[in-house]
Write a structure and sequence with these properties.
Mean pLDDT: 84
Keywords: DNA recombination
Protein name: Tyr recombinase domain-containing protein
CATH superfamily: Intergrase catalytic core
Order of helices and strands: HHEEEHEEHHHHH
Number of helices: 8
Radius of gyration: 18 Å
Strand order of the largest sheet: 1-2-3
InterPro entries: DNA_brk_join_enz, Integrase-like_cat_sf, Phage_Integrase-like_Recomb
Helix content: 25-40%
Organism: Mytilus galloprovincialis (Mediterranean mussel)
Distance between the termini: 47 Å
Largest sheet: 3 strands, antiparallel
Number of domains: 1
Structural class: alpha+beta
Oligomer: single chain
CATH class: Mainly Alpha
Shape: globular
GO molecular function: DNA binding
Strand content: 5-15%
Length: 179
């Protein structure tokens, strides 16, 4: 959930609404079909492409997504939600059988708990995945139009609200004045 949310710049509602049939695995990328989004006024849907990366943080590299599907015993073509609540019994954890979305509260608690393991002092929420992914792309000088399209933002002002500029980029503004 963390890897797909971050790399797809997904809102929680988009992430929690993903069904198995919405994610298609190709040789070099994942294609995620977002059937409903708050910015999709014409309900045409949107496709997000997540390229195969080279680190463990890539949902596609090292078959992270496929491993999840296999461990969760999900059928990739099914109408089931990819991320559902989990039940634990006698040391075993499984997705519940009912086709129900994971609650916002449960997702937030679990995601924040895992991120705090590597970044204990950050103030995080589920929207941090969306803004963190967009910020990382902007800091890597990805074309702004592509960032806007990947994040499904209608305007530059909404996109810009998600991206934190680095200290160096902020300093470069006055440095270019030649004072």
């Amino acid at each position: 959930m963390i890897l797909i949310g971050y790399s797809g710049f997904l809102r929680y509602d988009e992430l929690s609404s993903l069904k198995c049939k919405d994610i298609t695995v190709f040789d070099d990328y994942l294609e995620i079909h977002i059937s409903r989004s708050k910015t999709d006024q014409y309900r045409q849907g949107n496709k997000i492409l997540i390229s195969k990366g080279s680190t463990l943080a890539c949902p596609f590299k090292f078959n992270m997504y496929n491993r999840y599907i296999k461990l969760a015993s999900l059928d990739e073509k099914s109408d089931l939600f990819v991320f559902r609540p989990i039940f634990r019994s006698k040391g075993i954890a499984k997705l519940i059988h009912k086709n129900k979305k994971m609650s916002y509260t449960s997702a937030k608690e679990n995601i924040v708990k895992r991120i705090r393991i590597v970044a204990p002092n950050l103030n995080l929420g589920l929207h941090s995945l969306r803004s963190g992914g967009a910020t990382a792309a902007a800091q890597s000088d990805v074309n702004e139009r592509c960032i806007k399209r990947h994040g499904r933002w209608k305007s530059d002002t909404s996109k810009d609200g998600y991206i934190d500029d680095t200290f160096e980029k902020r300093m470069s503004v006055s440095q270019t004045l030649g004072l």
